[in-house]
């Protein structure tokens, strides 16, 4: 007989873990660069509005499905909709997380390598060409594969310990540290001479600089920033006690995610403007621009190391949730085999990630629809699989899951009015699917 299924020891532990799942490459790496290329303050306002109207309802939906079923993603849909094809929605999440991890852990490896280089004083220097350094790191085969391997080892060690001793304990340490490090960096950035121009760019809306495409980017960013779509948080919430409030937990996660996104902007834009750089640097902002920025700041090496550490923490906590959905899919009925399944899952993801790790070097010539292996995998996950997953979840909530169960889960552990449940259900049935379809169509380049 297997061991008893674990639960989070507290609502705070669940909130930190869920926030950790959401706060990663999207909030810290992607948000600043898409904000910088799409109008600054105007983009920020639209992003916040979309997060509240789209991201929050979707987050609550995954929590309701997870706790309502008390099962991991695959079994959750099978239990709530027996003798139907909805179980494939959970399988889509497992497959999607594998593809996502195959390139996400590659970036995690880059962050890990940069963190080590920074801590040993090997990044900032008077003659360092930061673009060349980054190119060298990602194109050298053994460096990319070693970073991927070590990053996955860290995941396997934490996840093999289980929910309370592994994920919850790690997040309870890493999430507060993330906020502390970010606040230190924000304070340093805001005290630079000329930083006010960057603050105005980030916080003062100028809608003339926001295009229709920028609005769609804001929708997409809010949509993906909360880790919804692959049922990762269905799995996390399946471990949540009935006495805890789902809406309260969801609002807490959204607030933390928005807070970190805003902190990222306040840490980066003031420094970039103060030192005469452009905010439209794009995806290379973190690995190329930040070392250049911090090299012109007193104690810059220390501040760069702090930033990379917090980014590593955020990347790890996000990867925990992605790997957990794969692990839990195979350990639902045999909890005692968790460590073995965790190791096997880590090895499978490592092998699957090797092509992406080599796609900037020895496999650079391999193109899929004119994209590198890394970029093609990213496109498949971000522009196709995630939107489809989100749309299907919204349809499942709207037309398949029992209304009484949804309302019971929504209101359990709190004194909220049933009117709020009706508002949430209205958003899920009408607003969220429409927005998802718009984002999906735009992502596919149909218009």
Automatic annotation (TrEMBL):
The keyword Amino-acid biosynthesis does not apply. It is found in: Membrane. Belongs to the sodium:neurotransmitter symporter (SNF) (TC 2.A.22) family. It comes from Alkalihalobacillus alcalophilus ATCC 27647 = CGMCC 1.3604. GO terms for cellular component: membrane. NCBIfam families: Na_transp. GO terms for molecular function: symporter activity. The chain crosses the membrane at residues 12-29, 41-65, 92-117, 137-161, 173-195, 215-236, 248-277, 297-320, 341-360, 380-399, 420-446. This is Transporter. Keywords: Membrane, Symport, Transmembrane, Transmembrane helix, Transport.
